[in-house]
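Q: What would this chain look like folded?
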Amino acid sequence: MIPPIDSAVLAANPKFALLHKTLVTKVLTTDGGTRKHPKKAERHAVATELKILRLKFTREKILRRALEDLPLTSPAPPPSKTSSSRQSTPAAEIPLPAELTELIILLTLSLKSPSPLQLPNLPANLQAIAALVSTHLTTHALPLTRLMNPHTNPSFLHRQIPSLATSIIALRDQVTDLRLRLAVNRTTLTDLAVKLLALYTAQAAAVIRILEQTTHGSLSRHSRAHAEMLSLSCSTTATEAQQKWKVAESLVYGPEAVRALQVYREHLRDGKVRMESRRGGAERELQRYGVGREGGKERVMKEIARVWEEMEGEVEEVRVDIGRLKGR
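A: My prediction, written as structure tokens:
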């Protein structure tokens, strides 16, 4: 049988793949033999002669083994209908005649011996020996026939014995073909498994590449670089603005302006002190009039203020009336 080859090896080596195809389809047979031998006819004749000799030797070996294993007894005849039905034990086997037994033993020894022995009365007993050998072979062939034909009625199994050799050869060829197909299918399955693993590997690599591009890819790196650039630009702008603010401050608030502002701050501080002093004097003056104290003097002062306010209102009304009378 030609061993199968991985398709990956054939795909990687096109010339070897062409050579392998030529060998399998045109040069070699399935069992590894050659198809185009220059002495094919002679080899076929030799193979045919070898097959005939092998078949002859096999027949002789089967006959010799059958004679060696041949029982020297014959089964008893079946019981008659008039016999007692209570007999349940099988009938005992009947020994063969002494002359026939002796002849079978001598025939077996003659087949084993390099020189043939004298076998008297062989032609007269040859039919009986053949019947015994046929029965013995049939007994041993029936179990094999039952295995080869499990669905056949046991009563008709003896009819399948002549075709037993052909069935076994066909079954052997079928087993060989199935083994070859199994090896090819195993190689195909291995190739498919390798391709499937390659697809899984490619898929995992694609997923990893997409994740890397999403997290650490060119777009992400561009966005990060752009953000960093904007951050640096903002920091630069803030630094420049601070620097310009300091320059503008130095331009607006020069040494003279700073001294003037310091003087003005001192003035405001003195004004604040004076205001605090005047506020304290006003509060003391109001306390003299009862403001801020609990008692009747504060109420009297509030009443005086209210009456004063009412009097100012009445005086204003009188002034308006006088002005209206003068206008007439």
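The two ends are 150 Å apart (CA to CA).
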